[in-house]
Design goal:
5 helices; globular
């Protein structure tokens, strides 16, 4: 496993933990940016107005909730939205979030 941080399995996803992760606007922004991206995004590639240490905390919360998968490519920590797994566990949740963000409501 090496430097790859732990990720919960789909059977371990907890709706309360997912909703608590998504309540923060910075974390919602990370999820919507990943959803809109054509590829996985390195931690420094997001549009966020927070410090590096605060961003690290937000990524950890999202990862522990199961919303994102993180892995290394060289020295860059990459982030991938776990859309298929989230759709399996909570159908329509990410669609509702990303549609709402896209329309600004």
């Amino acid at each position: 496993m090496g430097r790859t941080p732990p990720h919960p399995e789909v059977s371990q996803f907890d709706l309360q933990q997912v909703l608590e992760a998504l309540v923060d606007p910075v974390r919602r922004s990370i999820v919507t940016q990943l959803d809109a991206a054509d590829e996985d995004v390195k931690c420094g590639g997001f549009d966020m107005a927070v410090s590096k240490s605060t961003a690290t905390h937000h990524f950890k919360v999202l990862r522990e909730a199961g919303l994102i998968r993180q892995y290394y490519v060289g020295t860059s920590r990459m982030n991938a939205l776990r859309r298929a797994e989230m759709d399996e566990a909570f159908p329509g949740l990410l669609d509702a979030l990303t549609t709402r963000q896209a329309t600004g409501r």
